[in-house]
Specification:
heterodimer, A: mainly alpha, two-stranded antiparallel ribbon, B: mainly alpha, ABC transporter involved in vitamin B12 uptake, BtuC, 2 domains
């Protein structure tokens, strides 16, 4: 039964990593840039959920504050794209990466200045409620996390595979100029990508705060989500989720079976190994460039 | 505007363009040498720290600015340099003058260890890998407790060269001159690398791997060499930094420092030695400016900066964002534009430094 609980908690944290990784992959697919601030955006989403829901702040009902948070984070993603990212279209990947790193630092600073550096907890309806199943204790929050993630992934998959807008986004990501020639509004598509990424970060933050404490440094979790995205191969949506689950599962099991101090290292070792052995992830989309 | 009449091919690669150019740098050097007689010990210490950041920045500049590989983990190499210089002195009893280059070599060795298996990784992937390495090194330092002092940290002894003592608190002048000497050595070395075939190969690999390959450059070898040189310089910077702060632990060299190093050279201006120095000045003098503002303006209007921990990083990142949006070439790029404006006056055109916009094509599907 212990195994089952480890599995569940691993899956739940893996889902959060997976959602952050989905944000990375989404922006990478659409703009070929990596948003290093995705983890910090998640932290921001978590704080906004807490700020709306908790009795110490606005004390709104949970079911009302979540859609409101989603709206705020969507607008937030839109503004970031409009104000910052739109200016650097055409600059190198690295410049954009550095821009988003700096954005992440600023977000962390703003969150610290508004909400302080103490850990915060979300007062959600799931707190402290458990399901007892064959002797195993399953946290309701963890099950909630898993269900929401699965729903979101299915939704995103159909969005990119079936809808006109989703296909336009894929096209714009593959060749901006060509997409522009066939009449896709590339800039608007890019805005939309950031809106979706903001919403994803918000939902990931909400889920994260539902099952643990949040402080401004939580955003550094994004580095583990990198591992997830890399394992899945940047550019593959299901790959990101599976990568997140792998990282999420590795953590509790290595914490259980390895000497203390080492368990912390394992996700990064996996990341390094994947980059060395299979540089483009398990679900590679890259073909080698020939001269 | 000075017109240089070139009479030999050497004119293109000379360290100095002409006598005036040479004299400018001589004046700068004389000024730097005389600095201990001009400013007090506190500011001299800050300048020494700026020089150390500049050395670290040069190390990263070789990699990012000249060979086009982005590292988000250079604090790890600083850590290797700092720890190994102290351990070599205290455990193995080696003198400073031997252990300093050895520390650089050890750091360089780690760099090669990372560079060889990742020779095929590109841009962002390499950045993520080095980020992971930075975190791993931080954790390994904690785990290697008996050697590194773990969480409590390690104490760097005073630097002794030929029984001359260099101490930050007792004898900051000579420590400053030592750091200045090492800085100058690295600048000259760096300049010489840039005008050698190796430096040309770096730029070629940075600008286009395909055409570099077509020119007969061994890309994997060039990239590994860039890593080795970069990590050597950064390791030395780390060693000096360790001696400068005298006590340090794993947190001194955390991921945030890695990222700050990269942000530093981007603010300064990628692809030039000047950029490393401008960036180091920003990172070194910003805390002083902030605390000056706090003491003189903000307290009067009732803003207490103590309520905002981490304000330095916040402001620093904001400056960086503004630079990327409005001046992608950093401080050095802005300086070049201003200088060209005056040299060509009144012939300067607005779009003189404008680059062609490139459109994005995916690397994923071809």
């Amino acid at each position: 039964m212990e195994l089952f609980q480890l599995l569940l908690s691993g899956l739940a944290s893996g889902c959060v990593y997976g959602l952050i990784a989905l944000g990375f992959v989404l922006i990478y697919k659409a703009t070929e840039a990596i948003n290093f601030a995705q983890g910090d955006m998640m932290m921001f989403g978590a704080f906004i959920t807490i700020w709306l829901t908790n009795s110490g702040y606005n004390n709104l009902p949970f079911l009302f504050s979540v859609p409101l948070m989603i709206l705020i984070m969507g607008a937030f993603g839109f503004l970031i794209e409009r104000i910052f990212l739109r200016q650097v279209i055409g600059q190198s990947q690295i410049a954009i990466a550095i821009l988003t790193i700096a954005l992440g630092f600023v977000l962390r600073f703003i969150a610290g200045a508004i909400w302080g550096h103490e850990p915060h907890f979300l007062e959600s309806p799931m707190v402290g409620k458990n399901i007892y199943l064959n002797g195993a204790v399953l946290g309701l929050a963890e099950i909630f996390v898993i269900i929401v993630t699965v729903l979101l992934t299915v939704l995103l998959y159909f969005f990119f595979a079936k809808t006109k807008l989703g296909i336009a986004m894929v096209a714009a990501s593959q060749n901006q100029l060509a997409a522009f020639y066939v009449g896709i509004p590339v800039k608007r598509v890019q805005s939309l990508t950031w809106v979706i990424a903001g919403i994803l970060a918000g939902i990931a933050g909400m889920l994260f705060s539902a099952k643990g404490s949040v402080d401004p440094i939580t955003g550094l979790l994004g580095i583990k989500a990198f591992a997830a995205a890399v394992i899945g191969g940047f550019g593959s949506l299901p790959g990101a989720l599976i990568g997140g689950l792998i990282i999420g599962l590795i953590e509790p099991f290595s914490g259980r079976y390895l000497p203390s101090g080492f368990s912390h290292l394992v996700p990064y070792i996996v990341l390094v190994l994947v980059l060395i052995l299979r540089p483009h992830g398990l679900f590679s989309q890259i073909s080698h460039k020939k001269v | 505007m000075r017109v240089i009449f070139k009479t030999s091919y050497d004119n293109d690669i000379n360290l100095f363009k002409d006598k005036i150019h040479f004299l400018q740098y001589v004046f700068l050097l004389v000024f730097a040498l005389a600095l201990p007689f001009i400013v007090n010990d506190y500011y001299l210490g800050e300048v020494a720290l700026v020089l150390i950041w500049a050395i670290a920045g040069m190390g990263l500049m070789v990699l990012v600015g000249h060979s086009g590989q982005v590292s988000l983990g250079h604090a790890a190499f600083m850590a290797i340099g700092a720890y190994s210089v102290v351990i070599l002195q205290s455990r193995f009893g080696l003198p400073f003058i031997v252990s300093l280059p050895l520390a650089g070599l050890l750091s360089s060795f780690l760099g090669i260890l990372i560079a060889v298996p990742t020779a095929k990784l590109h841009g962002i992937y390499l950045a993520i890998l080095t980020l992971a390495v930075s975190i791993l090194v931080e954790d390994i330092i904690v785990l290697a407790d008996p050697l590194t002092g773990g969480v409590n940290g390690i104490f760097a002894p005073d630097i002794e060269i030929f029984s001359i003592n260099f101490n930050r608190y007792g004898n900051i002048d000579s420590l400053y001159w030592l750091i200045l000497f090492i800085t100058v050595v690295f600048i000259i070395g760096y300049k010489n690398i840039l005008r050698s075939p190796l430096g040309r190969a770096f730029s070629a690999v940075r600008d286009s791997e395909v055409s570099a390959l077509a020119m007969g450059i061994n890309i994997a070898r060039t990239r590994t060499l860039a890593f080795a040189i970069s990590c050597f310089i950064t390791g030395i910077a780390g060693a000096l930094f360790g001696h400068f702060v005298t006590v340090f632990n794993y947190e001194t060299f955390n991921v945030v420092l890695s990222i700050n190093l990269l942000l530093m050279i981007v603010i300064g201006g990628l692809g030039s030695i000047h950029g490393a120095f401008f960036g180091a000045m920003v990172i070194g003098f910003l805390p002083i400016i902030i605390s000056f503002c706090r003491d003189h303006f903000l307290d009067d209007i009732g803003i207490n900066l103590m309520n905002f921990p981490g304000i330095e990083t916040g402001i620093f990142s904001l400056i960086l964002i503004l630079f990327i949006l409005f001046e992608p070439f950093g401080i050095y790029g802005r300086w070049l534009k201003i200088r060209t404006y005056f040299q060509l006056f009144p012939l300067y055109r607005k779009d003189m430094f404008k680059r062609q916009k490139s459109y994005l094509k995916t690397e994923r599907v071809r």
